[in-house]
């Protein structure tokens, strides 16, 4: 009997143990099945960049709304086109938080749904773009990028460049500036055949001398100066910044005053393209000589180059006495030429033709060339009547040296005027280092030929 009782007790104990174990396991499964919606969210659950792990759905909704409100209170998305800048305010974005939570998947990341008012954005964009580019902007791509930034609750480290969203069709790339120089230099035909176009990359300095070295071409100083002058005149009515540019002692034929650029073994033409997009210099043979056209996206502003009134310096006369001439006889040894000084400025206008700024680009000085006159000796000539810097027959060399000294003085006056006109760029010196993007004015290394 005792053995039967022990078996019954063991059976009852085993059944109870199995029951309690099964009940605990089934109870957990049932709880997870019927009460999962009210449980806290598991690890890995996210809406956009916001982690919702360990939160109830109500807490998750409140967390998302708080993060969105924090972003909208401080955020704005800057946009730019060349020199023009504006911002797209956070108020133009609508966050669909409830719809985002409705699409949420436990343990997985889900997107934060955002809408942007593109009609208001387009109004901002149109103020930045030239009228000819408004129809070329890819608004859908821009909308996707704006929504993506807002959905990640981020602000860009750099302004959104609208040039990226402009299609590169024929209607976008246009001739933006051109210049023609009269010349009959025979080397230009070779230049046109080997260099029909030069690409000026965005955010880079272009050096004509370096370009020629890389191309393995060699031209005379006269030909290079003609090409450089045509390029210089073409880029002046743009936002390009002149880094180095030089002039001669005398203005070459065919080049207008204010537009010369001297290039040789010691002198260069360098300029900086501050835009993010490239521009192309196109060279063509014109009836009168060489024509250069700059092709690219139209500029945000209009640039007008003005060459001021020319200030003339009359040449002085140097008299030299020669024993080879009869008394009273005169002979012109060298014809003088007037010196010239001119100021070149660049004015910037907006779309409503309002003056934005005016800057001095250069002050070009060409010293006068002296008139040298030979005269025969007069009987009884004294120092008292030599009022025009005469020299005796024994000292013509000294007088010519005096004329050279006066010429040097005129050159020094021109160099002094150059030093006084120094427009500058932030972050760029004459050593050819790349300037920073916040360059505001042009720095000109305007040397004269010694």
From TrEMBL:
Statement: the UniProt record of this protein carries the keyword Cell membrane: no
Ranges of residues in domain G5: 304-378
Keyword Thylakoid: no
Name of this protein: G5 domain-containing protein
Compositional bias segments (type: Polar residues): 382-392, 419-450
Swiss-Prot/TrEMBL keywords: Membrane, Signal, Transmembrane, Transmembrane helix
Region of interest (Disordered), ranges: 382-450
InterPro entries: G5_dom
Organism: Saccharococcus thermophilus
Annotated transmembrane regions: 9-31
Bias-annotated ranges (Low complexity): 394-406
